[in-house]
Amino acid sequence: MLNASEFMQKSWEGLFNYATDLGDDLYGTEDDYTSPANYAHRNLVLLAGKNPFNVSQPFDDSGNLVPNADLMFDESWYDLAHRVGQIAEHNLTAQGGDERTKFYFSGTYYKQKAITVPDEVTRALGYISLETQVNKRIKIGTTSNLRYSEGNTVKDITNGSGTGYAAYTYPNNVPLYELDDDFQPVVGDDGNLAYNWNNLVSKDYNPIAQTKLDPRGNRKTTVSQSLNFNWKILEGLVFDTKANGRIDYTNTDDFRNPYHGDGKAYQGSSEKTTSDARTLFTSTTLSYDKKISALHFNLLGGYETEKYILKDVNVSARGFDVPFSDELDIASAPFGYGSGTTETSMISYFSRILLDYMDKYYLQGSYRRDGSSRFGPRVRWGNFYSVSGSWRLSQEDFLANISWLDDLKIRVGYGTNGNQAVPPYAYLPTYGLGYNYDYYVGMVHNRLPNYDLGWEKNVTTNVALEFRLFKNINGTVEWFNRLSDDLLMDKPLPPSVGFTSILSNIGGLRNRGIEAELHTTNVANPNFVWLTDFNISTYKNEITALSQEEIISGTKRWIVGNSLYTWYIQEYAGVDSETGEAMWYKDILDTEGEPTGERETTKDYNEADRYELGQSIPDFYGSLTNTFTFFDNLNFSFQFYWSVGGKIYNNLMQTTMHDGESYGRQLNKEVLNSWQQPGDETDVPRYVYNNSSRSSYQSSRFLEDASFLRLRNVSLSYDLPKKLLGKSGISGASVFVNGDNVLVFTKFKGNDPEQGLSGLITTTEVPNVRTVTLGLSLSF
After folding, report:
1. How does 307-345 read in b/e, with b if 16+ C-beta sit within 10 Å?
2. Looking at residue 774, what DSSP letter applies?
3. Which member of 240, 275, 454, 717 lies 3.0 to 4.6 Å from 379 by CB, making a disulfide possible if both were Cys?
4. What is the pLDDT of residues 458-498, one digit of tens each?
5. What is the per-residue pLDDT across 141-191, written as a single tens digit (0 to 9) for each?
């Protein structure tokens, strides 16, 4: 980001260029401007914000800083919105028992102060399990989980009250506090430094101040309890049943102060939300395990149920003229209210058979039938199955005499499963309430019914080769192919229907790839052990069916044969070296209006055509881990992770390279390379106040290579010799230091090239955090 001096100088340049373009229209006006430089001098503070220099006119008529101009403040909002985070974690575990009864307990306290201000979270977790053998045939057990968390977050708010948003939009000439004529912070009537609420990006906002004036908090309590009963009816015949109940109770507070920001229009507001989610899961199985000579088989049949109920309430009020509390009782008027109940359920029947012969041939088959309340009665049930087998070739006589081959196995699998990731009641016609008029209830039809909405089906085939060589090399190579049909997607509708789309089972996808893993023991002796783990994967995606010829989804175009992640945007052609104007490509059309296959450039963004410009998924990715152990008590390891190929659309760069269209907002350092004079070779257009060229609109200008190499983890630990522990009662002690996301090597210009499959980055995106952890582990 630009510092305050660079920002003001670039802003002056934008005004100068704007006035130059006006030409004669600039002169003879009531403002009596005498030159482009005069226009820039007189409007700089008005349009770019507070002057951070000690002189009223810091630039000469050529835009250069005058000799006596000193920068008096330089407020980095990126630094204000970020800090060095802190994590503290304490764990305690205990286990014990006798031959019949065993217990296990663990407790964790975790506190994190995130790198984004003011985000933080505190968690406390407790877990206990108890298992007892009642007699030779019956075993019972229970587990209990208790989790509590609280925290707050504003980093993902995309308006003036979000610190993550401000970090990239507030320029450095916006001070955190009010400044007097000597550039010293002003002390308010309450004796504290007075926050500055005057900026051109989001007027009457100060995100740092609002972290204190607009507290937002959330609290969540989770209680989970399970019971298990296991009955060995006969030798090999086992009945097992378990039940698990879970309650998630969440409440949130959201206060907006009456003086500034979002709450000012309502004299302050407060919103309270509570939700109570309850899940009951049961599973009952009957299994039979038997070995007859060289044949071993296992049969299993079962039944599962899941019931989910969510109740939530939301209430808000306005008018906090005396905002000493955010409780709704002190508000002058209600603002809004609502409540809802959501219920879903699922029933499953399943079976499985496992066979192995001579520990050489393996066969497995399964079948399950799932019924989900998310779908209509006539398509509610889905039938899914799988079959797989493996052959241990190394046990065959024709490979028995190969001394360096320790193990070799081929594995093949084919199976189906379903996806029910749709909102509850998605197949029903629904109505939105709250559209009241006067005292009459009003509602709006907001979703069309689709009683044929059913399961999304996936069919997966995989073939793998597993091997062990020379007693110290283990590896796996696997090919997979996944076909998805009846995808759960929104089907576009013509405007005459009154709805833009309807959720339907449309389209198909194919995902295929190869994954390889290798584990080697390079050195192994009493004083030194060196292990290496390596993996690499490649993944391809293809659309196999759609409900229409093409679907334009934001920056992607979906057509049969293409990837779901193919970029389809305007292609940037650079900058005209004579004028500094941005250019894009467009097709040359024949007399029938069809593309000839040739292209030309245009300076009119509206004429630019979209093109397919690569994909957001990488060509391949993988990792390499090396682990070293010295003298059995000093351990050192490191892991590199890489991704090669694929492209990221850098929204963050687009936001901060607006070329003057969003004049007054922060700018990226890249803007210093903007075009200045005829003959300049650059890809950054001329910077102009109130730029209307659309040079910062969606295009390949902001599409970047996503390749990177990351040193993901470095770890060093030392186990103290037991003789040093003496009779302290401590049976083992180790100290360790870990580093995560230590280094990254990439050409990507944003914060972090490691992103999701969509390839999109926003101004509130938080990169993978570089973390150093120091720890002590004790055993008793």
Report:
1. bbebebeebbbbbbeebeebebebbeeeeeeeeeeeebe
2. E
3. 454
4. 999 999 999 999 999 999 999 999 999 999 988 888 888 88
5. 999 999 999 998 765 566 667 888 889 999 999 999 999 999 999 999 889
